[in-house]
Structures are given as structure tokens and as C-alpha cells.
Amino acid sequence: MKKITGLVITLAALFTLAACGGSSSSSTDSSSSAKTEDQLADIKKSGVLKVATSADYAPFEFHTMVDGKDKVVGADIDLVNEIAKQLGVKAEVSDMSFNTVLASLNQGKSDIAISAISATKERKEQFDFTDNYYNPPQVVIINKKNKDTFTSLDSLKDKQVGAQKGSIQEDIVKTQIKDAKLVSIEKVPNMVVEVNSGSLDAMVVEKTIAESYVQQNPDLMVANIDLEPSSDEAFAIALPKGSEELQTELNKIIKKLNDEGKIDEYVKTNHELAEKSAE
To answer: Is the entire prediction scored with pTM above 0.85?
Structure first.
């Protein structure tokens, strides 16, 4: 479950405003309002839904070889492809660093952002979000050699615990493993390597993601350590502020797909694909 900090979002917003230097605040607000009001119509007219993601979070978004070509796939990608289909357009997915996924909305480079993003209070101040489409639990990954050592939150005191930079897992480490030393790392696979090598004692990640990496790395395991669930941890699609029409349309599609069990199916199918790709 991912969370860009309020500071990063604010800096991204300031950067966007600076790039528009010289415009009055009233004209900027008017332009932004007009853009978001026409967003759904513009997407349908263009025939393209521009999607921002960070494809390093299997089974939600990741790279794999399809017919000899590298391709971005995952549960989130299946979801946006179905959304695009129901809107009568084609999804155009752009892979970027997670730290820039939400900033791409402010910069007008994408229509929506989907990357296992949590709709936190801080983010809602800068962006609109759809209803939650998936709510997974969080777990701690450790090296099996530490199975009898890391058995509780207290046992991680003064230990180095990794979390993806800009993610909600950073807050989980700060608030639930308070005495641990947070190590923020940009890519989840890099954290896995460090836990494997012993340079990190543990890492916090979403359960489905953890299961994929543990399956691929026999020296790792999910620790028997409970983390408190949070409503902030559910996944939602991020939209530019003021995207009421697009938000309403996406919520209808998400509800329909959840009622049909499609999103759980996307997660299961891509979990299996991620495991197969790692063989």
C-alpha cells in the first residue's frame, strides 16, 4: 500500500505552479476547473485513457515478457484496461517512479494514477480519488535465519526496517514499529535483496506482494508479527482535483467489477503470473 508524503505532493504542486509562472491565481483556478469538468468528455473524444503507474509492485503492476516483449501487466493494469473498455477507449499506461506517479496528474501527463495507491487525508487535499477497490493487509518480511529472533514488534527495536520510499509502509514503520530504524528504499525488489543479504533486518509490505517475493526467495518468510489494519491502506484510483464526472463514472465501473468478483480475480490471476514469471 503506497503513500506519497504530503511534503512530496506539496513540492510537486509548487513545481507545477512555478512552471506556469506569471499566471494569476484566478485564471489558473478557472483553467483547472474547465479542464477537469471536460475531462471525461475529452478522454472519450481522444479515445485514450492516460494512466500513470510504477510497475514494480507485483501482482498489481509489474514487468514480464509476453511474446518475447517486455510488457507492464498486473491486477491494476487489468482493472484500467477494463475501465477503458467500458469507457469505449484504450488505456495508455506509462511506467514511472512511484514518487512521480501522483505528480503526473498535476502536470497533466496522465488522466488517472493507479499504483496500489492509498487515499490518505493528505493526498485527498491535493487529489480526488475513486471508491476503494482493494484493501489488503500488511506484513513484515524477514530472513528465515531470524525466525526465532523477530517474533514481535518489540523485537524489532533498534533494527533496520525497510519500506518503499513515499509509501504508506513508511508510516506503518513510524507508527507501529516506533523504535525501529526506518530505511526508505525506492524499489521493493531492492529491499528484498537487502533482507536476503542481511543489510536490512526486515521490511514492511502488503501481504499479496509479500507472498510473491517469499515464493521467489526461499530464504525469506513472513514474520509472525501482527500489524494493525487501517482504512488508509485500501487502494483507490487517483484523479486530478475536481474530476467529479470521471470519478462518478469510475465508481460505477469499480462497484460493478467488485460485485462480480472481478478485481479479486485480477489479483489472484496476476499473483500466479508473477510466480510463473519468476521461475
So the answer is: no
